[in-house]
Amino acid sequence: MQLKQVLKKIFINLLIGKFMALRNVSYTAYSDELLLPLIKAGSNSAFDEIYKRYSQKMFSYFFRMLWKNKELAEDCTQELFVKLVKNAGMFELERNFSTWLYSIANNMCKNEYRKKDTRLNHLAMVKNTNTTTDAVNPDLKRFKLAVHSCTNELAEEKRSLYILRFQENLSVPQISSILNIPEGTVKSRIFYLLKEMKEKLKEFETLHIYP
Amino acid sequence: MQAEEIIHQKEWYQLSENERKFLTELAANEQEYNLLKKMLQVSAEETSEVPLLSEKRKLSLDAIANKNKFKSNRLVWYAAASIALIAFSTLLVYNYNSTTRYPASVASRAPVEDLPKTENKVIEENNDTIQTTTGLSYIVSDSKRRLKSNSSGKTINAQTALPFSNERKYIAVNTTINADPRLLLLVTEVY
Fold this sequence. Notes:
Helix content of chain A is 72%, strand content 0%.
């Protein structure tokens, strides 16, 4: 029965997709999930709409995940959208599009971490890291650098958890879906991650870094 | 509410007793609490440091998409052309076989006379008589019957052995003239 319903949904979506792809209409009012069948059917306008919604967001995620390497982040963003066009049909209708996209991006980052040359570049970059900060307070400037350095030194999984929760501001259920781990595990990992960060930044406790 | 949500939303003095207990392991005093709060603030601010994605990337993505579209269109056209070619060549081969296999029977344009069934003994006695929808009756000749026989000497059904109606007509008329003395006389008189 469930399979029948899913097949029906897919069929309807494909029909809508084929029909709408022939027309050049604005898709700003469409949900992400509705745009996917259109992309699959070859609609450029639907793809442009999705690109407009997610390109900067995904680039930002890659940029932070891949040691602020702009070229690498741009390459990954481009590859992600190519994958999106090719695998639009593989999207599960029950899933949230945004978390699906983040999970693909997360897997791509894992692949990048595995690459030997990328790892070597990363090590060199971490050594030469110098974040652009306009902080007037020298303690605050040092603190920002320390936070940045701590984030870079985090293990891969903790790093993605940190970025998804504190920089992308995603909810625990969303992170759970992206990283494919239970919600309880996400909560406890966040708790221990905060604890670890606090220990690393302990020296700033007494400094005047607060406004 | 999660620990990070409490830290993000509230100041130390705004915390309830339960919240302070919940956060004891993470931030035992105001200093630790403020440190975490500042860390979360700095992390969130990092978002503004991200540069904008180059517009060239969108152009190259469009180029890739168009290339793929052209490829898929080209494949569809190739498939359609090959199907049309196969259909056309099948038709040609079939026509060639049907016209060149029995050229003699096709060449015969002699008018076929409607013969009375009851008066023709040859037709009545012969088991190989072929009844058509037009009311004409034909007989397969002896020579042709021999051709139809396979190696074991068993006679094959006339319809399956001689599938072309022109040939059957030719054979039937020819045999009927030879067998019927009245027709033979008529033909002799004419010549």
